[in-house]
Write a sequence for this structure.
């Protein structure tokens, strides 16, 4: 791998070893697209390209497999996940670009980039599995070059990863309804190698910092979906918000130990349906049972057997919700799910911590809340002028 890629000074220490940072498939795609447009508009080869990542780290990435054809340019960047175990490390991520009459940047996936076949994922059904932040990175990188070169027209970008279909067999993509390849991912553009213990320690460190700054109540989301939902749909102060990733149980344990008074969880149903089954580490390698837990609660809500059978064949919780809605029992099922979530969260904290959950879906919005939510919301009221 390139030793001068801009990440030489970025690492973490684990077991007295330096673990190097890497960069995401999204960064590879954006860098390749940027370089290809440079070559298309400037009509000369480019050996290396700079890319500023959302994390604020400037990458210097080497181009491979350059092909300047008639009206189009293709080039690739080789993925380097650093010292993080990553199935995509070493794969070439290609971008092919060409001019279009329609203004703007259009982005699609080619060979080895998966297609979304099920509802509930970040991109709509039928779209290339290129997530929102990589799309934004590609669009901004291409637009930057177009403006520099005073090119007023449009650019089409096709991202391909020839090894993607084979790599996808080592991932959960097929189970998530992404077919034909891998996803182009990344929210920061950078891969930070972290063990589970290190990640839990980082959550604890952030919680200790919040407490030290006077926080007694926390808003906690498992990840980016919850954070985005909080900002877009809830009028609350997120100063004391943080992410717990998959570590719901560990987060509660730490909050109890540190003497916090309450946690308001804002969670996508895809994660917290597992909590309704008492699963406190929601990573798919630890446990899944999403369809089974949803089906069990649908039975409690009086759903007909044919609906339950359909739910058990689903891949995503959003798909299962659609079935419940069709059979008129989504609201009742979610009521039972939230009752079980509430029970298991209180059980984990031994009642020494007030917990509440706002459960939501990307497609159906707020699905319901537990009983303590109104009280907890009062601790996060927006201040005037906020």
């Amino acid at each position: 791998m390139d030793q001068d890629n801009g990440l030489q000074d970025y690492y973490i220490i684990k077991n007295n070893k330096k673990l190097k940072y890497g960069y995401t498939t999204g960064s590879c795609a954006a860098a390749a697209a940027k370089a290809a447009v440079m070559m298309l508009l400037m009509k000369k080869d480019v050996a290396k390209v700079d890319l500023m990542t959302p994390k604020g780290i400037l990458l210097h990435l080497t181009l491979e497999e350059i092909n300047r054809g008639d009206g189009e340019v293709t080039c690739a960047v080789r993925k380097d996940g650093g010292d993080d175990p990553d199935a995509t490390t070493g794969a070439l991520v290609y971008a092919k670009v060409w001019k279009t009459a329609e203004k703007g940047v259009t982005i699609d996936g080619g060979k080895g980039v998966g297609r979304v076949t099920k509802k509930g994922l970040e991109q709509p059904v039928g779209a290339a599995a290129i997530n929102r932040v990589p799309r934004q990175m590609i669009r901004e990188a291409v637009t930057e070059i177009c403006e520099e070169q005073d090119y007023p027209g449009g650019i089409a970008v096709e991202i391909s990863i020839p090894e993607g279909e084979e790599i996808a067999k080592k991932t959960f993509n097929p189970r998530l309804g992404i077919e034909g390849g891998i996803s182009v991912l990344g929210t920061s553009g950078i891969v930070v190698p972290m063990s589970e213990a290190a990640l839990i320690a980082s959550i604890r460190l952030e919680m200790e910092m919040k407490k030290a700054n006077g926080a007694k109540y926390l808003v906690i989301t498992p990840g980016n979906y919850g954070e985005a939902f909080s900002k877009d749909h809830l009028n609350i102060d997120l100063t004391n918000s943080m992410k717990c990733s998959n570590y719901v149980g560990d987060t509660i344990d730490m909050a109890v130990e540190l003497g916090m008074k309450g946690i308001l969880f804002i969670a996508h149903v895809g994660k917290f349906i597992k909590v309704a089954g008492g699963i406190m580490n929601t990573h798919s390698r630890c446990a899944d049972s999403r369809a089974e837990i949803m089906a069990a609660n649908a039975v409690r809500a009086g759903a007909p057997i044919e609906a339950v059978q359909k739910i058990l064949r689903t891949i995503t919780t959003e798909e299962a919700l659609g079935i419940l809605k069709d059979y008129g029992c989504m609201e009742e099922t979610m009521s039972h799910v939230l009752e079980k979530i509430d029970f298991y969260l209180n059980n984990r904290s031994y009642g020494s911590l007030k917990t509440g959950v706002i459960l939501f879906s990307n497609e159906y919005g707020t699905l319901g809340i537990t009983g303590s939510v109104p009280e907890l919301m009062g601790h996060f009221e927006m201040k005037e002028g906020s």
Remarks:
- Residues 208 and 258 are 7 Å apart (CA to CA).
- Residues 203-378 form one domain.
- The chain has two domains: 17-191, 203-378.
